[in-house]
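Quick one: structure for this chain?
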Amino acid sequence: MGIVKNRLFYVSLVIFSGAFFYFLAGIHREVNIYDEGVVVYGAERVLRGDTPYRDFWTIYSPGQFYTLAAVLKLFGSFVLVERVWDLFVRSLLGLAIFFVGFKLTGFKPAVLCWLVATFWLGYIGYYNYPLFPAMLFSLASLLFIMNYFFKPDAVPHLRFGQV
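Got it. Here's what it folds into:
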């Protein structure tokens, strides 16, 4: 069992790195002032103390602004930082797609799902689009649910009356 977990860890590392470097090849695209620019500008406003929906109107959820504001505060307020963050999120999304496919179908079909999803995610020209973190957390939730239903012994059950 330990060998399988180690092998899956190394496969996951290769999958994440492969997706990240594939996405890195397309990082030179020009800045889209609408989607990417609105999110970066909103994150900059959050860094200055503004609150979404109170101090500025937006169509995006506030979590994207707060998350990006934290990333920009840690690594500097540059578009490159925002884009690398987006590549990180997309690579994690590809990894989550691989894990869902692996749990449902096995290794080879999961790699095929990951390849298709990675090429699709690389084709999309929008950076820092709020859909990608939302999909990532949705798939992470799905993985937790699948882990519960596929291996019920892995989750301790509390019964009434137990402390």
